[in-house]
Here is the input.
Amino acid sequence: MSIYEEIMRAQVKQGNMGGRNGPLGYVLRESKKKEKVAKVNTPKPPKPVVNKSPYTINLVSGTVTNPTDNNGFSDPYLVIMAIKPDNSFSKHLFKSNVCKKTLTPTWNQSEDFVVGDNITDIIVELWDHDVLSKNDFIGRSIISMNAVRNTGYDDTLQFFNGSEAVEGTVKLSIKRKQGTRF
Here is the structure.
């Protein structure tokens, strides 16, 4: 296809030169036929089947080392995401409630979430919630899913933000729910 055909096709698609029903409308009709033929001849490979297992997180309490709001406090909340096999992040598996105006949040929150058996690590991030501006990142920590699958996780996580200084801590436990798989 030449550059001139591409320009003509774009103009007709935008409604110029009579649009689809005008004298050059055949340009679009022919390209759609070619696209349909190309789509029919290229089957998509099947997605691999990944088993998923349910887990329960019990989020207890934490600390924030440095306040992120002008009032001398933070509004902390926790987010958990999985690291996929291609090293991208999943959508949020878990998001905690926001604890308002505190440096020592107490969540006492328990919730179930599902993780694929092909996931090796989960990322736990601590954030400060802001209403009028972008939320502030406090820190991040990583938990090995292999350890969680075998013995569960029950400890205090330390959160870091690009330096060796601890930006916050969170006491939590993650346990695999027995007997259920998806």
Summary: Residues 26-41 form the longest helix (16 residues). The CA atoms of residues 34 and 40 lie 10 Å apart.
